[in-house]
Amino acid sequence: MKTELFRTCPESGLQFHKSAETLMRANAVAAVVMLLIGGIAALAVTLTRWPAVHLLPADRFYQLLTFHGINMLIFWIIFFEIAVLYFCSSTLLKCRLATPRLAWLAFLLMLAGVVVNNLAVFSGQATVMMTSYVPMPANPNFYLGLILFAVGALVGCFIFLGTLVIAKEEKTYEGSIPLVTFGALTACIIAIFTIAMGAVILIPTYLWSIGLISHIDAGMYRLIWWGFGHSSQQINVAAHVSVWYAIAAIVFGAKPLSEKVSRTAFLLYIAFLQLASAHHLLVDPGLSSTWKIFNTSYAMYLAVLASMVHGLTVPGSIEVAQRSKGFTKGLFEWLRKAPWGNPVFSGMFLSLIGFGFLGGISGVVMGTEQINIIIHNTIYVPGHFHATVVIGTTLAFMSLTYFLIPVLFRRQVFLPGLAKWQPYIFGIGMMVFALVMMGAGTLGVERRHWDMAFTDAALGFDYPASAYTLMGLVGISGVMAILGGAIFVLITVVSVFFGKRVDSESAWSTTSTRLMRAKPDLVVEGGHAAAGKWGFAAPGTFAMAMFFLAVFVVYYAVNWKYLASVWPMS
Amino acid sequence: MTSIQPPAEALWWKQPLDRVEGTWITIALVWSLIMFVMMPVWHIYGKQNLSNEAYKTTPSAYMAKTQAMVDKYTVRTETAMQIPVVKPPPGSDVYLLGRLWQWWPILQLEKNQTYRLHISSMDWQHGFSLQPQNINIQVLPGYETVLTITPDTSGDQTIICNEFCGIGHHTMVGKILVSEGKS
Q1: Residues of B in contact with A540 (CB under 8 A)
Q2: CA A129 to CA A229: how far, in whole Å?
């Protein structure tokens, strides 16, 4: 039997399995490369939609927009998620990774998928956007590349599950799996469902593109494609919420307010998130209102409830940890005295705020059956999902990366002074970007559109001047966010490949320690609540949650009011 | 570090909820249910709802119906492309088609009159986006959407395409003209 090598990181106490470590590094590096090339396309796209610049010609714009969507939304995020899955199983459970060789095969399949798909897009014969709606045709390799990538990711998911089985079998941990691993498990389960949906729609579409199937129904395609397309964003939600919990634990030693609530909220994701595909079909023909209302409300908003729970329990767990360290003054001393100069924390917290206030609220509002009429396919939609996927997922992953550079890569962070600012430049840039896009969308500006002035059209249309102003701000804030992204890539690449090594010793050996239960709390008399107010352990977080709810209610009402002003229809 | 460690208590699911959690879950659940109920309520009391009326069709069958309407009700043509401007009677079935890269024909409607607007695509997917009203509907080939609309503002409305449909996507513009009518 092959001897397995482990090392323990002296700073974090985490134990790395050698094969797993190399795989995590490879997947994380591949992810950052995807982020880099997707980011270059982002710059070109942003500068084209900035009306005063209007950089690219139409064909190149649509081509690079397709390229940007796929490389960011699929390749960057899923490569990183595979690294997160290996981390949450092998590293957190102090277990050897299941079948490292298969994991390399998975990695190579994903890389092959990236190359095949991107070459198809570069050929100019696959300018079909990420959604590749039939019957608009793409070069068959476009679909083939996505299928290869998905098969690789699926293998990665099963390696995660296999590692959980080994950890249980070899008793590498005591009691139940940690909350963060539990969250990663929900992400993995959603991923398997998602990839199955992808197979159901992409394989027939591939066969159609090579002429073996004569017809694919446009409505059916949209239904199943979004079962894949939106569910894949739910993998991200489950993954980045897990990362939030992990960072709260790493930076503050936070524990969940209660395991039961946080875990149940993750289970709600599995049960209800998949219904979200219906959000994209609210103004489609052929589906009934009953179907739309049930599905898009995630069955009475139970998955939204889950996110609202995490939105409370993640900062709540930080507040309790901070209060137990003595930051008990007023409602917000715990937050004021948080390490705002540590990018691991600041990025995570901006991610949480941006995801909730911008991505969450806008998502629920535009996912309301009737309100969708005034939002569908306007630039409001990319405004929403840049708040969820970029501020939510990408920024959370960036924060985790600052933790992983010394711990996983054993390198010091290059330009730590700049790293301090990076989450703010990126996060705030992205927040403004998402907001002004939503504003422009409210004025009817279209998404995926080269020329809002309609110069070449036989019939013209003039948007109000405010729409142009907002799109100018989209350009400016977009460039700011891209600058933040570029700083991240610079810091990461230089740290990992040329950075100074971390001084402390972390040698490989065959010994592996067992993961023990968390120590029972040394609770002050009267429980956690004693450190809080109103009998609440986390009163500051509760106040923030109530503020969030007030914003939510007002914005929801405003949109109904706006809807009531358009032409009556039935 | 405990969110990344196994729970301290073996029977963690018996640990009671913290008060802050219980309170928030109750509030959030109530809000979720209010939002859920709002949609059916709007179907009953609201004026902006999409119909559930849609039919399977084919581009040629739909083209024939549109052409019949155009032949019957054209009042003039616009631009060098001779786009027909069609003025169908109030209450009638009105046909609009989307194709690469045009919304066809131009519709002339009367304010505060009700029309049954049919929409379909001749080729790829398109996005019917009426501006500045900001009414947005997905248009699919093979599907005929029927929408009962009552324009309550007069003036020109522009139909743009907001579903990517190829290199000429940004030139796909149509019109719905709303006149004051008799009233």
Answers
A1: none
A2: 12
